[in-house]
Amino acid sequence: MSDPHGIIGIYRKGGSMTVDELMQKVYDEHFSHFDFMDNMNGGECDCNLHIAMDLMYEYGGGLC
User: Fold this and answer.
1) pLDDT tens across 20-52, in order?
2) What's the total number of domains in the chain?
């Protein structure tokens, strides 16, 4: 189930954000890990960050 128009929202205290905004925030905050894994290991990683990003991408985002 994809959301090409960014309608699905993530609600949090003080406001909301789209799945794409959440993915961008996670990516920005953990850039060094994603960059290291992409450069040193071809992007293959089964850590919680990568699992969460894969799930968000599959079910509503498009950042990756």
Assistant:
1) 888 888 899 999 998 888 888 676 788 999 898
2) 1
Instruction: Judge residue 1's burial from the number of C-beta atoms within 10 Å of its C-beta, 0-12 exposed, 13-18 middle, 19 or more buried.
Output: exposed
Inside any domain, residue 1: no
Containing domain of residue 47, as a range?
9-59
Whole-number pLDDT of residue 18: 80
In a domain, 20, yes or no: yes
What is the structure's pLDDT at 37? 87
Under DSSP, is residue 11 helix (H, G, I), strand (E, B) or coil? strand
Q: Is residue 3 part of a domain?
A: no
Q: Are the beta carbons of 16 and 9 closer than 8 angstroms?
A: yes
